[in-house]
Amino acid sequence: MGKEAKTNAMRILDRAKVAYQVYTYDPGDKVDGITVANKMGQPLECVYKTLVTRGKSGGYFVFVIPVAAGLDLKRAARAVGEKSVQMIHVKEINPITGYIRGGCSPIGMKKQFPTVVSSSAEAMPAIIISGGRIGTQIEIDPHTLVTLIRGSFADIESDEPAADEF
Q1: pLDDT tens digits, residue range 12-44?
Q2: CA 58, CA 71: separation in Å to the nearest integer?
Q3: Chain mean position to CA 71
């Protein structure tokens, strides 16, 4: 049996000497976050998705929220000092981040964009994020993640879930 290839996100964590755990799952034909959490047998509140937006200024911003939550665009904009932010189109994910839909990690994008992690993660001992490839997830301490990506925590979740954000 061959050794699983490391993703860019894993190599960055290794270089930074950050502890993490890898989870793998068979993606099948669905890559939405709730399906991923269920396939891994993990509680929805522990599994987070990475969303990429464009601000009114034209800059890109990354938000990390629980898979069952929606992103409150007004709160997100305030968190990054923008008048407004909008989700980027799925076809833009790869050219902007280097990742594909369903495999977008806040670690190891082509450029380190300003990143905000939901404040819901602050009290958790660990959260699970994309490992940078569909079928691979990484469990990491949220404070370590925020430090590594030079991000911040903020209240960015909406009161309504949004199924198309993953």
Answers
A1: 999 999 999 999 988 877 778 888 898 899 999
A2: 19
A3: 12
Which helix H or strand E contains 66, and what residues bound it?
A: strand 60-66
Q: Which long-range contacts (CB under 8 A, 24 or more apart) does 125-129 make?
A: 126/21, 126/46, 127/46, 127/47, 127/48, 128/23, 128/37, 128/40, 128/42, 128/46, 128/47, 128/48, 129/48, 129/50, 129/64, 129/105
Which pairs count as long-range contacts for 57-62, CB under 8 Å and 24+ apart, including other chains?
57/82, 57/83, 59/113, 59/114, 60/88, 60/96, 60/111, 60/113, 61/85, 61/113, 61/114, 61/115, 61/116, 62/106, 62/109, 62/113, 62/114, 62/115, 62/116, 62/151
This prediction's pTM: 0.92
Confidence label for 161 from pLDDT (cuts 50, 70 and 90): low
**Whose CA is closest to 5, among 141, 140, 131?**
131
